[in-house]
Amino acid sequence: MMIGLIVKDFMTIQRQMKAQAFVLIFLLIMAIFMRESSMLLAVIVFIVTIQAITALAYDEQSSWDKYANTLPIPKGDIVLSKYILSVLLMMMGLVVALPMVFLINHLTNNEITTEFFFTFIMIVTSTLCLLAVLLPIYIKFGSIKGRMVLIALCFIPGFLLGVFKEYIPDITRSFLDVKQFIYLTPFAGLLLLWLSSLISTAIYKRKEF
Amino acid sequence: MNAIEIHDLHKGFEGFSLKDVSFSVPQGTVMGFVGENGAGKSSTIKCMLNLLKKEYGEILIFDKDHVEHEQSIKSDIGVVFDELHVPETLNATQLDKIMKQVFKTWDTDYYFERLAQFNVPKRKKIKELSRGMRMKLSIALAMSHHPKLLILDEPTSGLDPIIRDEILDLFLAFMQDETHSILFSSHITSDLEKIADYITLIHNGEILLSESKDTLLYEYGIFKGSREEVSELPEHAIIKKRNGAFGVDALVLKKEVNEAFRLERPSIEDIMLFFVKGCV
To answer: Rounded distance, CA A204 to CA B221, Å?
Structure first.
């Protein structure tokens, strides 16, 4: 049943994905000129993964959840399908982006360095964390209200950053200390995503359609 | 056995509530669920489907609690709303692929037969389909896993008489199997007169009547006369009265009224108006 939901989402965003292909070509050309592969990787992964939000927006527009909840699909599966879709999209983004990155590095005679692996891992971790925050917000508030909440949420860290400015160098130093554990961060991201899916399921189960 | 049984359903909203809604749909029958816009038809249906959470009351579908056995019940029902709630970028062929994964009993051949019968294009996006086409697609989707119960929430509203007739014929064909049942919510009473066996009338969140259609149409009569003439009717025979064009109209129990009084046969719409606008 969950496969049906994932298939539906891929079919729904198919057209949008095709449109994004042109953006990717443009980005690739830009990245070649700028000799910047890490940024290309981050942007591609972000653009492809964010299509999960597009799928949620299409669902909201058509009141899909009202229909889906008349089908023999548990509410937990409906939520989980969005998380699986997001992770699959992220993986697709990586599959699309990595050959381009290798191509750029080959053309610019740059070697794949340890620094690049750090960047790669940080991109994966950040994407997982981003999804863990975005999905419950969009499931709870919908795409329009969700965007507002997200903007508000972005202001709070900015505000806190301003207030606790003097402590920031210490934080940076402690971040550098944990750099040796960076390989573990994608697992932490996955754990966060799993926790987020539990929260989203609880939110969804309380919703009325 | 009852396909649906609702006892004392209560659900409150801002400025409106479903108040102790109770009625049942016997297996093998079509229940017409009537009421004006905002009377509580869709809210009752949503509570049955657990789209809205009831505050109290009992809802049994196929004799099983609708929340406890939600998944097994939903495998055996088909639901049609007044709109097709599916992303508009999809088409009918893609929906077949999705539904195959959702229902174990999904019948692709039956689905495409219905689409062909209704002339619904297989590869046209939903957003490019007319309202009539979307409704036909919605009905094909609801019926192609061979459900035992159809729950229809205003499936014919806004459709022209020809399409409505085609759709009603399909529902009549569905009812050839005596284990099948339909709950048909509509304010188009002529559709219900054609296919319903029972009528349940809801008004302001309360059930005003739930009776067999034949009882309503053949045992009730309308007497139209002056106030004096109506006062001569036996009091226990009068169900409801309302002001008519030339005096007072009374909905009466035929068998309780002397044949000297000329009675007209009521329609479902007449009965609905008497119960909603009339007084005792």
So the answer is: 50
Q: Cβ of B50 under 8 Å from any chain A Cβ?
A: yes
Amino acid at A94: L
B52 CA to chain A: closest CA distance, Å?
A: 5
- Give the pLDDT score at A169: 61
Residue from A3, A8, A204 to probe the interface with B (highest B Cβ count within 10 Å): A8
B46/A contact by beta carbon, under 8 A: yes
Judged by DSSP in three states, B81 sits in: coil
The question of ipTM being above 0.90 is answered as no
Strands B30-34 and B16-26, bridge-based pairing? unpaired
Torsion, Cα of B60, B66, B68, B70 (10° steps): 140
Binary contact (B89, A11; C-beta < 8 A):
yes
- The partner residue sitting opposite A7, judged by closest CB among B79, B84, B97, is B97
| Helix-helix angle B92-102:B131-143, to 10 degrees | 20
pTM, whole model, 2 decimals?
Answer: 0.86
Domain map of chain B by residue range? 2-211, 216-277
Q: Which of B51, B72, B90 sits opposite A66 (nearest CB)?
A: B51
* Nearest Cα to Cα of residue B34 among B240, B185, B225, B223: B185
What was the pLDDT predicted at A103?
Answer: 79
For domain B2-211, give the fold: Rossmann fold (3.40.50)
In angstroms, the separation between the Cα of residue A140 and the nearest Cα of chain B is 16
- pLDDT tens, residue by residue, B98-123: 999 999 999 999 999 999 988 999 99
CB contact under 8 A, A208 and B52: yes
| Chain B residues whose beta carbon lies within 8 Å of the beta carbon of residue A4 | 98-102
CA–CA dist B215, B198 (Å, integer): 9
- Helix ranges, chain A (H): 2-34, 37-49, 51-62, 64-68, 75-107, 114-163, 168-177, 185-206
Q: Which residues contact A117 (CB under 8 A, 6 or more apart)?
A: none
Nearest to A136 by CA among A202, A91, A188, A86: A202
pLDDT tens by residue, A106-146:
777 666 667 778 888 888 999 999 999 999 999 999 888 88
**Dihedral of CA A31/A35/A36/A41: which sign?**
positive
CA distance A68 to chain B (A): 9
Q: Give contacts of B52 with chain A, Cβ < 8 Å.
A: 208-209
